[in-house]
Amino acid sequence: MPETNYNPEMAFFVDMQRCIGCHACEMACAECETNGQESMIHVNYVNRAVSTQTTVQVCMHCEDPTCANVCPADAIHQDDFGVVHTANTSRCIGCSNCVLACPFGVPKKEEQAELMMKCNMCYDRTSVGKKPMCATVCPSQALFYGTVKEIEEMRPDSVPVNSFKFGNQEVKTKVNVMMPKGTHTLIVE
Amino acid sequence: MLRLFQTLNRVAVIKATIAVVIVGFLVLLGSRDLQNFDPALIAYLIGTLFAVFGIAYRYSVWLQRPPTRLYWRRSMNFLFSKDFISYALRSLKLFFKNIIFQRFIAHRSKTRWAGHFLMAIGCLLAFAITIPLTFGWIHFELRPGDDVTYYAKVFGFEAGTFPLGSVQAFVAFHGLVWCSILVIIGSVMMMKRRVTDGGLIATQSFSEDLLPLILLIAISVTGLGISYDYTFLQGKTYQFMAVTHAIVVILWLVWLPFGKFFHIFQRLAQLGANLYKHEGERRGMATCEHTGKEFATQLHVNDLKTLTKDLGFDYDKKDGRNHLDLSPEGKRSALAKAHFEARKESGKFFG
């Protein structure tokens, strides 16, 4: 990677309950130069038949990424800052292992292009000290990029959590989810 | 130094050594016990043998990784099954479409495809010319009493003749000139992307992304220098041109197994992934319990459950299900529902 001004003090905080399903983040995500005009963020209804609840999902940048581990082509790379980058285009063979193994359901397979793509936290922006596109446009602050101090002041009754349990597997991530105070892990059954 | 040898992968060393021995044997066979081998190309031969060792070594280590091994075994089993003919034809078709013509890149960008195709086809044609020449498999000769006809020999057998000074001779003996032109045009197109695209500038590295293009351009330009020298300079700078070209090519050959160019060999795995998907579709699809829709082949989901376990991940749930049974959308919704429940239990949805 080239020399960067990536600021390790800055962090990503997601609060899915604040998502209003406006899709502004999707539009902004498509402006990220590392995606080539493809939106990598996911906004979907949780269960449209019974609720209007929507959810938003960025790459959580796992500390030990399952996607990179299951990649047969060594195409997914985690940098020194913990950012898990989208597939190396010369290596990715489009097998979809990462798409199906990611516990958060993040990577997308571009079928015709035989390529996996995913959010890399707007590396073109974050590497020069700017905020990711999605976080700059989210009107409800379901997506927030800033310091821990800032989020603690904004959300006094919440706490950032970066530990998740999927079945027997604990997954730790770079990106945080805002949870009620006293929570240490988000358990997904 | 001793530590380096101790950390080498023994299986890979054995396979790479076998590959070098086989190539060495083919050189002896094809050049008729080195009778047709051109000693001027000895440095290129040594560089190529090193590249063969390195590529076979890295390929072998790569195949030992659990996910790669899985795809390799599965695709070989499917290919060499009762459906061999249909799968072999399918793979052959895909080989031309995606390996020779790299059509999948056109779906990423048409200009990018054009640049990559020119570069790749130039390189592949250059391989097709230089490797048989370096190994002594092809050579040309003039015969006593006939100094106007070239005799082309392949593996020591006569394979054709053409008159000196003919169009055919011009095209054949300038083959590498045409390749160089293709590679230079393609490399410049790809280089333009790398210096103008903001996303690439942020994520690329010199050794992985720029150096390969610089090396390709250097090889092509120094190669053109040799032709330029004997065409326009009466061979006055031949030593300089030939040595410069040899140094760049040998550097490239030595680096071939370790750098970006290894993707040329990795790309073949795309054919295996396609067979795997096709066979999986024939066996049946997995349905997501959340969306109620088919999202992948059941074979793939089952294999990934085993693979993730082999890699130290355990997504099994207490009720016997597995988190990987959910589609990507199902997983996102499961996370959102868990988050909703946690907020609900706390009595505050926001804050």
How is this structure best described in words?
The complex is a heterodimer of chains A (189) and B (351). Helices cover 17% and strands 24% of the residues of chain A. Chain A has six helices and nine strands, in the order E-H-E-E-H-H-E-E-H-H-E-H-E-E-E. The termini of chain A are far apart. Chain B has a domain of 62 residues. In chain B, helix 2 runs antiparallel to helix 3, helix 7 runs antiparallel to helix 9 and helix 9 packs antiparallel against helix 11. The longest helix of chain B has 27 residues. A three-stranded antiparallel β-sheet of chain B has the order 1-2-3. In chain B, a hairpin with a 6-residue loop joins strand 4 and strand 5. In chain B, 68% of the residues lie in helices and 8% in strands. By secondary structure, chain B is mainly alpha-helical. Chains A and B meet through helix 2, helix 3, strand 7, strand 8 and strand 9 of A and helix 4, helix 10, helix 14, helix 15 and helix 16 of B. Chain B: It comes from Cyclobacterium plantarum. Chain B: InterPro entries: NarG-like_sf. Chain B: This is MFS transporter. Chain B: Keywords: Membrane, Transmembrane, Transmembrane helix.
